[in-house]
């Protein structure tokens, strides 16, 4: 049924205990001298690039390529630091779902569709020993708009699977209404999970194709 499954990271695959948000705050404090840089910022379902830009605007930091580079250079160190401090874990049902995918006679390709910068995605998933499970991905470093990332992931899927890959053969798995919107942007199917920050009612309201409390509850 599905030839490509695209996974969000935070709240879908892993919980980091807020390490990403803390890393953003630490970078803005170290690099730009700003306290409480993450105040009044909603992180759920966003791209890192969009978050950086919003934080810069909120605090009067010039949105220059040089300032973005300053953030990018400092972020891996702080993300690693806070992952070590906060712990975290792989979300419920992920291992079982991955095993089910691999055991199918026509196993789907497994990839990422995430607002995380590529280096951040790798650091997070390596921390939980699951980075190697994913063949490719579309990342917040590819585009600032989450919906555009879906199109990028589809195109990369076509390059690996074949140009006949149809939108309906793609399943997007995520934990926020923005993940559902992202899937709809390319006409993909979407599985919403309540393992992240969004409530069941919030996810029901955006009408995913399937809604489960943990990934292992979904089979096809």
Structural overview:
The protein is of the alpha/beta class. It folds into two domains: 142 residues, 3-Layer(aba) Sandwich (Rossmann fold); 68 residues. Helix content is 44%, strand content 13%. The chain contains eight helices and eight strands, in the order ββαααβαβαβαβαβαβ. The strands form two sheets. The protein has a six-stranded parallel sheet with strand order 5-4-1-6-7-8. Strands 2-3 form a two-stranded antiparallel sheet. α3 runs parallel beside α5. The longest helix has 22 residues. The mean pLDDT is 95.
Number of strands: 8
Q: Percent of residues in helical segments?
A: 40-55%
Helix-strand string: EEHHHEHEHEHEHEHE
Report the biggest beta sheet as strand number plus sense, adding barrel if it closes: 6 strands, parallel
- Low-confidence regions: none
What secondary-structure arrangement, pairings included, does this model have?
Layout: E1 4-7, E2 14-15, H1 19-32, H2 48-58, H3 65-86, E3 89-90, H4 94-103, E4 109-113, H5 118-127, E5 136-138, H6 146-161, E6 170-174, H7 177-184, E7 189-193, H8 200-205, E8 210-212
Parallel strand pairs: 1-4, 1-6, 4-5, 6-7, 7-8
Antiparallel strand pairs: 2-3
Brief account:
The protein is α/β, with parallel strands linked by helices.
Task: Fill in the keyword field for this structure.
six-stranded parallel β-sheet, 2 domains, alpha/beta, Rossmann fold, globular, 220 residues
